[in-house]
Design brief:
The chain is of the alpha+beta class and 57 residues long. The protein has one helix and four strands.
């Protein structure tokens, strides 16, 4: 599995990494790479992105 760091991540906080897993997306805190990841199906991923965009305004 290949993890990619979000282009919106910064050194202070909000460090998120994403990986594609069998058609789903896994999300984790890049500061805790051995911690748990949240796996989202396509619908949940879409909702996650909408919420993240809304909260970044």
């Amino acid at each position: 599995m290949t993890w990619r760091k979000s282009s919106r991540s910064n050194a202070a906080n909000g460090c998120v990494e994403v990986a594609v897993v069998r058609g789903s997306h896994a999300v984790r805190d890049s500061k805790q790479p051995n911690g748990q990841a949240m796996v989202l199906d396509a619908g949940a991923w879409h909702g996650f992105l909408l919420a993240a965009k809304e909260n970044s305004r």
